[in-house]
Prior knowledge:
The chain has 294 residues and is mostly helical.
Amino acid sequence: MASPFEAFLAQCWADHADHPDEVARRLTSRAASPPDSAALAALLRLELHVRAEHLGDFEGARASLSRWANEPLVDDAVRSALRVGRHSLALAEPSGEDAAPGLSLEETLRAEASAAAIRLGRADTPGALALLRAAQARLAALPQGAGSVHRPLAVACNNLAWSLHDQGSARSADNTAAMLELAAASRMHWAEAGTWLEVQRADYGLALCHLSAGRPADALPFAERSLAGCIENAAPAFEHFHAREALCRVHAALGQAKQALQQHAAAREAFDGLDDADRAACRNTLDALPALLP
């Protein structure tokens, strides 16, 4: 059973996209107190995300970081989160500085990734891309085998690619190009920092991003690679469902009716193997597929 703080944090994450002002008020009121340092670090990440990325309230975000800085729970991990948060705010503002005094390389990369997400949240796609490209150039200068430092960039590129994907027909041509660049970068970084699961999901993302860009022929090999990753690693039904969903969409877009129907049937079979929670999460996706079929 989740602790009161875990339940509070989960509800804030669930509500923040639609009601960022209300969630910011909850966080200020300290409706629940973090029980340990790891919980405090998680709270700081949420505060930064809501106040800076969703509300553009940089001063409020700084005040929040300062408010927690002297808590008894503060340890080295929390101090690191505070340094990253402060520097990401400096980088995310139009006059942001490009120096990171006292930060480790991994902290610098985390700050650049966080700042890129904030800039995209403030509709500054060029600024977000510039930060990520700077981080990638910094990373490229490292010796091979520094896998863990790829993780913050893998997460940032993935989240930004999906954010642009979800703009749909409102997305500009430049943002479509950025979406494809970010999806490819996410896959590359996960190949260094993640497991087969993250790589397989990145292939799924690449398939849907290319499909959203109107490039179904380019999407096909990524969808096939996502399914191959599921088969090779005996993935659970949830992963098979999404790989089959991607293939159904791609074949339908290519006018390949037989293959699309086969993949729809396979997606439904995978859906039947899900538990109740995953079925609820996948129901709308499954229900949308028949409209694509001949």
